[in-house]
Structure of Small ribosomal subunit protein bS20:
Amino acid sequence: MPIIKSAKKRVRITEKRTAYNREWKEKIKQAIKEFEKVVEEGNVEEAEAKLREASKILDKSAGKGIIHKNKAARKKSQLTRQFNKIA
């Protein structure tokens, strides 16, 4: 355990940020899983809505620095390709 006051603060901040990042990454995974489930079922209208939702979450997380912007773009592209296969 840290002894210096500033080191203690850094530990607290790191724990908060880690929890925040983990929460957002879980949102991303959940949105992608929901989209893929709908795509598997073949429901085009619902898949389009889930694609928009997943894209929104990816963009927000990239803006917040949770994931890199190129990773967000790559994921969105992959999801769009999946959607285009059923559309």
Summary: The longest helix spans residues 5-41. The mean pLDDT is 97. The radius of gyration is 17 Å.
